[in-house]
Amino acid sequence: MVLPTVIALVVVALLGVAVLVWDRRRTPLPAASAGAANRHAALTAAVGWASLIGGLVVGAIGVMMGNLNLGGRTIALIPCAAGIVFLAVHTAGELTWPRPRGEVRVARLAVRDTGDVAPSWLRAAPWAWASLLTVALVAFGAMAYGPRTIAATVPAGALVGAGRAYEVGPFPGWWYGVPLLIGTAAMLLSTELVLRLITLRPALTDIPADWDMALRRRSARRVLRGGQAPLAMTTSGVLWVAHQAIARGTSPSDLLAGTCLVLAWMAAVGGIVVMALPGRDFRAHRAPGLARAHTEMAA
Fold it and tell me: Which whole-number Å values give the CA distances from 165 to 141, 171, 199, 244, 250, in the listed order?
């Protein structure tokens, strides 16, 4: 159990690092201030990614090796806790964003909205995982026989104990559901806060406006990629635990158990796919003059 988890976390970490390196290498830099801003954004993303992966690794390995004596609810909240740290790093990065200096400062005035900097489909990803998780937790809370169990009955054709009622657990009832719903709400609010900070960050005045907007969109894309991952992981884990309990209480071929298993895999794979999809922010806004300036600087 430990080795597959370690391998999965290493793969995710390497994938994230590869995306960051690729993003940085393909960025055109029309001015010195653009280079400083790009470095600041890349450093923020790298520290945020390291915090996210580090939190997940420490929590997962510590629990599986028995070094951390944590309760079930605390273990369930590890992805959300790592996600909050990830978003806190990006918040700090936005609050320390390079600002104009000198006696005379120039500011470019432009009306921006969060929808201008955040890709609509990517912004919808954390809300989609949160919606699926909320529906699942409410449904499982209603199904639960106790805070952490589900009621089951020995089949009538069984040789021993036919018709006897018993409880199966662990099951994600309200014992797990309430703190997970709070953690989910905190993740969504924190994500929207960071996106708002990206929207309101000071503009770079000595570079084209489309380059500045492209950097904002890249920052928003990085926040949403990492921010949706803990929600997808939590959704997958909750559905997997529910599948296991329902399958033990009925049978592995039960329709509800099978549905939970399919949705669990969809959340796990979907979270990784969303995290890995590249953006086209700078290629979409790379004007001929900007490309020419980048070529001259490279020469």
Answer: 19, 16, 56, 18, 12
Structure tokens at 187: 């993740």
What are 177-196's pLDDT values in tens digits? 999 999 999 999 999 999 99
Peptide bond before residue 170 is cis, with ω within 30 degrees of 0: yes
Grade residue 140 by pLDDT with cuts at 50, 70 and 90. Answer: very high
**Buried b or exposed e, range 52-63, using 16+ CB within 10 angstroms:** bbebbbebbeeb
CB under 8 Å to 215, separation ≥6 — which residues? 34, 37, 38, 41, 204, 281
Give, for 152, the enclosing helix (H) or strand (E): strand 150-153
Residues 6+ apart with CB under 8 A from 236: 264, 265, 267, 268, 271
Pair 209, 259: CB distance under 8 Å: no
Distance CA 90, CA 195 (A): 10
Helices (H) and strands (E) in the chain, counts: 11, 2
Distance CA 107, CA 114 (A): 20
Residues whose CB falls within 8 Å of the CB of residue 257, separated by 6 or more in sequence, listed in order: 243, 246, 247, 250, 251
- Give the three-class secondary structure for 97: coil
Q: What is the phi/psi pair of residue 158, to 5°?
A: -70, 150
Give the integer Cα–Cα distance in Å for 282 and 275.
18
Kindly state the helix (H) or strand (E) to which residue 103 belongs, with its residue range.
none
- 197-221, pLDDT tens digit by residue? 999 888 777 677 787 888 889 899 9
